[in-house]
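Appendix B, example 12.
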Amino acid sequence: EVAYRLYDSLYTTRMINVANLGEFIKNAGLPSGEVSRIRQYERFIGEAIENLRMIKSYRTPQTLRSFARLFTTLLPPFFAPTFAELAINVGSMAIGI
């Protein structure tokens, strides 16, 4: 909810003002290359704001990261005997690893 309000307030209102000012200075005589550069910067800012909003809304929760870290530490010893037996039966350590 907060991310959407931030996105709406920052991007839509303020960036529209930047776009309108770009049109104003273009009509005042600024070369088209400069206006193109301003529009490129507008796009970069918009993409950065969208990325921040996505990170805020959909980042991985700390509990899920901790759960994954715990199981990647604890599960390999349980599977090690199976892979060791496979390596002995096949006769290749590379297969077991």
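The chain has five helices and no strands. The chain has a mean pLDDT of 82.
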